[in-house]
Amino acid sequence: xxxxxxxxxxxxxxxxxxxxxxxxxxxxxxxxxxxxxxxxxxxxxxxxxxxxxxxxxxxxxxxxxxxxxxxxxxxxxxxxxxxxxxxxxxxxxxxxxxxxxxxxxxxxxxxxxxxxxxxxxxxxxxxxxxxxxxxxxxxxxxxxxxxxxxxxxxxxxxxxxxxxxxxxxxxxxxxxxxxxxxxxxxxxxxxxxxxxxxxxxxxxxxxxxxxxxxxxxxxxxxxxxxxxxxxxxxxxxxxxxxxxxxxxxxxxxxxxxxxxxxxxxxxxxxxxxxxxxxxxx
Length: 281
Description:
Elements: H1 9-18, E1 24-26, H2 34-46, H3 51-60, E2 61-65, H4 71-75, H5 77-93, E3 100-109, H6 127-147, E4 151-156, H7 159-169, E5 174-177, H8 183-191, E6 195-198, H9 210-219, E7 225-227, H10 249-260, H11 264-278
Parallel strand pairs: 1-2, 2-3, 3-4, 4-5, 5-6, 6-7
Helix pairs in contact: 1-2, 1-3, 5-6, 6-7, 8-9, 10-11
């Protein structure tokens, strides 16, 4: 999520290029944020003088668009959904450098923390909002099916409802993003064909829970595992508490690779292969 970061975008993109990055996805969260994100990134690219570096950046840079389920979006879901469809249609007509390869992130969030970043309060979730959140989720799932795009699913403290919604629509193509459930829940998603993506949060695992994490990380088959940053959030250990960047994902790779009995480099090659297949690159 380069466009939503406050650091020097040109330096970050250049560093990603120097690391021979194969895929960088700038993920949308609001119905109308696509072109504002594109403008920020294009402004960063304009500050880079090396044509080879610019070419490399354009080779790995992709976008998604979707509606994260904040309460306002849920209540205004019909209007916001129409806005999202209009943005996607405009991009199809004039794609330029904006390569949209997925719909999202969207989904369900029942983690109550009014003082947190998302200011999620259970008091706001009466039956109408709760039902509306599910409807907004299923509307986007169905749109992804129509557009034949994979989905980036946000699911936090909402496993049963998430599973029910994706089964109701019957479109199983995409990622359970920033996976935060256990091995048993992962099996349910995997049975339906979903990819499981791990972010820096896995490195926060306490010693008492490490056996469960080990089981989860080894449960996901080679052809369904992905890694991500969710920048600027979830900076992995040893950087926990700082603003995250895509560069930091190497720590997540090393943690997962150690548990799976492989190297970070081998895991990275595996994830690149899965990304190529999922996003049809």
